[in-house]
Write a structure and sequence with these properties.
151 residues; Enolase-like, domain 1; FAD/NAD-linked_Rdtase_dimer_sf; globular; five-stranded antiparallel β-sheet; oxidoreductase; 6 helices; EC 1.8.1.4; single chain; alpha+beta
């Protein structure tokens, strides 16, 4: 178990002991590996979505197409977002590259709030930042990416 997951579960136990009805949402608990490059994921994997017979739309964005990653020398990574095909809600996110463990929190929140690709796209991200690659990856899910070829 990761420390951040255990910490949240402890908070939930304390809240419930005080009469609140709190629940642990495992699907929004990020999994992080603090290596070089970092990796982080949250929500469903592509394989899990297929096993659950959920129609999905997948988008990938290479960090080599992100200005901040190039500045940092971290262009080896990528972002992969998994959206439900019917409503466009984000179901899973996977990042490998610099600051992956810092960026995954935005996507954990997005999964918990059932944010759609459209909503990620309309979220303004500062430039140049690594996090703007999240927006561009969501744009790729709709064949609207600017810095990579659309499928």
């Amino acid at each position: 178990m990761l420390a951040h997951t255990a910490s949240r579960q402890g908070e939930i136990a304390a809240e419930n002991a005080m009469g609140k009805n709190s629940r642990y949402e495992g699907r929004t608990s990020p999994s992080c590996i603090y290596t070089m490059p970092e990796t982080a994921s949250v929500g469903l994997t592509e394989e899990e979505a297929v096993q659950e017979n959920i129609p999905i739309n997948i988008s990938r964005f290479p960090l080599a197409a992100n200005g901040k990653a190039l500045i940092m020398g971290g262009e080896e990574g990528m972002i992969k977002l998994i959206f439900g095909k019917e409503f466009g809600e984000i179901l899973g996110a996977h990042i490998i590259g610099p600051r992956a463990t810092d960026m995954i929190g935005e996507l954990a929140l997005a999964i918990g709030l059932e944010v759609t690709a459209d909503e990620l796209i309309t979220t303004i991200h500062a430039h140049p930042t690594l996090s703007e690659a999240i927006r561009e990856c969501a744009m790729g899910a709709q064949n609207r990416a600017i810095h990579i070829m659309n499928r």
